Amino acid sequence: MELWYSEKHTNNVKFSLKVKEHIFSSQSKFQKVDIFDTYEYGKLLTLDGLVMVTERDEFVYHDMIVHTAMAVNSEIKNVLVIGGGDGGTVRELVRYPFVKQVDMVEIDKMVVDVSREYLPTISCELDNERVNVLYEDGIKFVKDKNNFYDLILIDSTDPIGPGEGLFTIDFYTNCYNALTDKGILINQNETPIYDEFFKVGINSNRKLKKMFPIVEVYGANIPTYPGGYWLFNFASKKYNPIDDFNEDKWNSLNIKTRYYNTNLHKGSFALPNFVKEKLEDG
Ligand code: SAM
């Protein structure tokens, strides 16, 4: 009998992958954690029945959440990753020799443990000496931090369960305070294809605009996420992601990527009209 992983994206849309084997399933204190081995996308990590990463297309998300910011400010030394327990974001960050310290604050140790065991190509830099893995609630962690991080990457689940507070104005205010005066914050900002996701994205964008002088949205094609097209917020105290983008400098670092490149960087901020209009109208 064929085995399929199936995820409801809306009341009228389901996304399915044919599965070789359901390798791992357990309920952590925070969420249901599953690993599937799929035919087309390799190993798949799901939390509460939602795709987090697959071996085949994780590079798109991790390239875009990390390199877009790193190419705008080449003096980033201290980075905070909130969530990101699969390790993909950390893996890309440590490729920059000038990054001194990466604090990854993941609420759920089980996500890190299963990623270490079943997703070694993604979790491979979690033991890097510049990386501190902290098992804490990111919402609490940022509360008392002040003027320390050059970059905060919110690599979170959707605003349900433990991820809910990561989309609030209080949390963004604490992140703002935790950042240096040149600080950049990136968050994953849902798909614009389906209204119920985009509502969350528009809200998050509006809240960030209340406190950061620069907030721009960019997108990437991620086949296993709802709509296949995902947005990110780029919020910054100083740097504009296009005007302050030094492509020659980034290219001189010679970092080999599978998705990100400097032309794509510029293109990713050129949004389709329906996205621009909805973001402007709120
Ligand atoms: N790339 C994925 C996406 O966009 O779907 C997200 C990656 S997943 C590894 C996100 C992680 O955020 C999960 O492991 C989850 O446990 C963690 N997380 C959720 N709420 C959190 C919180 N309040 N503090 C720290 N980590 C949190």
Automatic annotation (TrEMBL):
**EC number in record:** 2.5.1.16
List the GO cellular component terms.
Answer: cytosol
Listed GO MF terms: spermidine synthase activity
Q: Which GO terms describe its biological process?
A: spermidine biosynthetic process
Q: Which reaction does it catalyse?
A: S-adenosyl 3-(methylsulfanyl)propylamine + putrescine = S-methyl-5'-thioadenosine + spermidine + H(+)
Q: Which PROSITE patterns match?
A: PABS_1, PABS_2
Q: In which pathway does it act?
A: Amine and polyamine biosynthesis; spermidine biosynthesis; spermidine from putrescine: step 1/1
Q: Which Pfam families match?
A: Spermine_synt_N, Spermine_synth
Q: EC class of this enzyme? A: transferase
**Can you give the residue ranges of the PABS domain?**
2-237
Residues involved in spermidine binding: 62, 86, 155-158
* Active site, UniProt feature: 155
SUPFAM superfamilies for this protein: S-adenosyl-L-methionine-dependent methyltransferases
Keyword list (alphabetical) reads: Polyamine biosynthesis, Spermidine biosynthesis, Transferase
Q: Which residues bind S-methyl-5'-thioadenosine?
A: 31, 106, 137-138, 162
Q: Which NCBIfam families does the entry link to? A: PRK00811.1, speE
Job description of the protein: Catalyzes the irreversible transfer of a propylamine group from the amino donor S-adenosylmethioninamine (decarboxy-AdoMet) to putrescine (1,4-diaminobutane) to yield spermidine.
Q: Which PANTHER family match?
A: SPERMIDINE SYNTHASE, SPERMIDINE/SPERMINE SYNTHASE
Q: Which family does it belong to?
A: Belongs to the spermidine/spermine synthase family.
Question: How is the subunit organization of this protein annotated in UniProt?
Answer: Homodimer or homotetramer.
- Name of this protein: Polyamine aminopropyltransferase
Species name for this entry?
Maledivibacter halophilus
